[in-house]
Amino acid sequence: MGRVGIAVRPGCPEEARPKNGRKRPHAPARDDGDSPETIFRRRVRARRRGSAGEIFVVWSPEADLSRGGVGFCTTPTYIDFFLADSAVLPEKKKIAICQRRWIVVSNPSLCSIISKWLGTEAWIRNVDLIAGLREYAEDPDLHAEWRNMKKVNKMRLAEYIETLTSVKVSLDAMFDVQIKRIHEYKRQLLNILGIIHRYDCIKNMDESDKRRVVPRVCIIGGKAAPGYEVAKKIIKLCHAVADKVNIDPDVGDLLKVVFIPDYNVSVAEIVIPGTDLSQHLSTAGHEASGTGCMKFLMNGSLLLATADGSAVEIAEEIGAANMFLFGAKVDEVPVLREKGTSLKGSLQFARVVRMVRDGHFGFKDYFKSLCDTVEEGKDFYLLGYDFASYLEAQAAADRAFVDQDKWTQMSILSTAGSRKFSSDRTIEEYAEQSWGIEPSKCPF
Q: Which of 91, 182, 197, 326 has the fewest Cβ atoms nearer than 10 Å?
């Protein structure tokens, strides 16, 4: 047995395809006498270079024929462009997260509520039991405890934000969070442009309309690679927008923008429990897995996401009605890219990009190249195409947040539907299917 390790350097598979009409190498015809391992080994001995990425396929004979860490809808994207026939693939093991870290340690208030309503702490070791919360999803007493837990966590996060950035935020606002590595395909830029649209709308409202606006605290966090110029400009734009929005008296507490510096896992343990809405915006087909989705899900955050990475499986577990899904599907992305300059963005998208380009937030020359990346014909990650759908999902989130009973029920169902994403299940699958070992009882 052996393991195939697939490493994909940041970039897009479509751009990494061979140029000049060269065809990808075909593997020899299958010999029915060969084992699947032998066939797969023969087919994946390849190294392909492209303008946007590099693929390295490594065979490790001392390991097992399994792989982990790739979302279901993303796997064909990475496999197809260097395998002629992907019928024989190593067995997948889905990566996951540990409820003992992300609930018991990070969110002890939520841990207490779960144990109380399930009548046991056994769920900490047997996470399948957490699904029992579904029975109480409409219970008003649980709703009251759940909202109080969330308010305490938001208070802790608000204090952290004020200490770190000197920005005071309202606890009554929706805490809207996107925390992950800064990258074009993760589309933090889409989030910022959406914030600019919200700011522009508030600025042009009369006072009666402003009273109907759902207050938002938009929190973005993440780090960029040292040489990744576009990512650094995205971070700079976050700060430029925050500097203008946070001191605008016409906006007040209706909108605050916060960029959390030096984001890391310890900071995530403060941010995630206090989050109302979590955004996962990667262009469909690009997110390898998305354990961030799982952490927010376990903590009862509602997800606004594209059908990508683990969001696809989360929708299967909790129902798409309990999420805010938007954007092009994975099979639509290549077709949309082929349209090139004929693919037009919405008028709202053109307006917010023009605001940045015209220097509304300062640094006009600095942001010019950033705006160029989303112009017609250059918008590889489809921000313009998805923008209208993104705004609709944001509006749906606003409507749901106004109805706190509905929002709380969706939050409870999110936590109750997180059992599939526990690393306990992943380890059990490895033990049974790959390692061939039996579990033993913990001595304590």
A: 91
The residues near 372 (Cβ < 8 Å, ≥ 6 apart) are 378
The pair of three-digit structure tokens given for residue 133, joined into one six-digit string:
């919360």
Query: How do 216-221 and 255-260 pair as beta strands?
Result: parallel
Beta-carbon count within 10 A of 347 CB: 9
* pLDDT confidence band for 289 (50 / 70 / 90): low
Contacts of residue 399, Cβ cutoff 8 Å, sequence gap at least 6:
none
8 Å CB contact between 278 and 302: yes
pLDDT band at 290 (very low <50, low <70, confident <90, very high): confident
Q: Are 5 and 58 in contact (CB under 8 A)?
A: yes
Q: What pTM does this model have?
A: 0.81
Please state, in angstroms and as integers, the Cα–Cα distance from residue 404 to each residue in 10, 135, 214, 399, following that order.
Answer: 40, 19, 12, 10
Find the helix packing angle between 188-203 and 347-357, rounded to 10°. Answer: 90
CB 335 within 8 A of CB 343: no
The angle subtended at Cα 11 by Cα 5 and Cα 16, nearest 5°, is: 80
Give me the phi and psi of 44, to 5 degrees please. -100, 5
